[in-house]
Amino acid sequence: MSAQAISAQGQDANLLNNPILSEVRNHVGYLTLNRPAGINALTLPMVREMRARLAEWAEDSDVLVVVLRGAGNKGFCAGGDVRALCESYERHDNLHQTFFAEEYQLDLALHQFRKPVVALMDGFTLGGGMGLAQAAELRVVTERSWLGMPETAIGFFPDVGASYFLSRLPGAIGLYLGITGARIQAADALYCGLADWFVEHDRLAQFEERLDRTEWSAMPLKDVQNVLAKLGVQVLPEPPLDRLRPAIDHFFNQPEVPSIIEQLRQVNVADSRDWALRTAEEMALRSPLAMVVTREMLVFGRQLSLESCFHMELHLASQWFERGDLLEGVRALLIDKDKRPRWKPAPGPRQLQELFEGL
């Protein structure tokens, strides 16, 4: 629902300047990310406000369910405000360190929240937005949804719990999505397990209207599922990832990123040739360092608990401004916009070991 629609329901217009809007209606707590001009990119005040509200609602017996949504027409959340984090590092303050630590704490709190959480992934849901949404018990996509972890394109690695939720996708799909930063839509999200329900964008208002009229039972999760079952479906036909799955599993289970690119460039099979060449071209633009670390992180993450995955990601993030490619990626793609990043070379075994040392 847009911020304008929320205002029309009687919210104080002054609240529209707040980056997080919250309200409780009929035992449902709504948290709305409210930076529509920036596709609701997360800032530290937003993270802190969401964490405080969730802590309050966890103890409030009047709140049975939480719904996460984004204001505006572009998306739920396009990630974290990485430009501000890079500026923080260059100012020699600690905002960038604090942000990652508290963002991961928020994501973990959502994973562990004792009441049902619904994430409405309408529009762009990327990076930090995926961290919020994948922690929800019920993840809803629409025909407007674009999901992805695009971090390697800016010289970073998929974080916010991605080492847990991507590493547990079928076959090598998580490796493919994490290393390449590929975006997927609703059918693929349902197919690979990154979404639970498809509801048409125009029916999201009905979803909230039905929640407003719900007579809650002792099982609020089942009550919400019943509402979703009347409005949506859990499977969509012909997900592209299903057709590509054999190729994805073959190429992205290779032990070395350069060999993945090399083999993709050699594909001659008509069914997957265009996809393979396009994927190889996109990978050639990504940070070699970030791709290699991403692969290592996702393989390692398969054997770790959720808490240990967040610990590993924070361990890497704490080193990344000095040893990674994020500053250069943000410069080339977001500040100077010359799209010519000067990436660091792929790490050797010793450098890779040093990055993960101490876990």
Structural commentary:
This protein is an alpha/beta fold. It has a domain at 3-148 and 197-231: Alpha-Beta Complex (2-enoyl-CoA Hydratase, Chain A, domain 1). The chain is 51% helix and 11% strand. The chain contains 17 helices and nine strands. Helix 2 (44-58) packs parallel to helix 4 (95-111), helix 4 (95-111) packs antiparallel against helix 15 (306-323) and helix 7 (173-180) runs antiparallel to helix 14. The protein is globular and about 60 Å long. Mean pLDDT is 94; it is low at 1-14.
In short:
By secondary structure, this protein is α/β, with parallel strands linked by helices. The protein has helices at 3-8, 44-58, 82-90, 95-111, 128-133, 162-165, 173-180, 186-192, 204-213, 220-231, 240-252, 257-265, 270-285, 288-301, 306-323, 326-335, 349-356, and strands at residues 20-25, 28-33, 65-70, 75-77, 117-121, 124-126, 138-141, 146-148, 197-198.
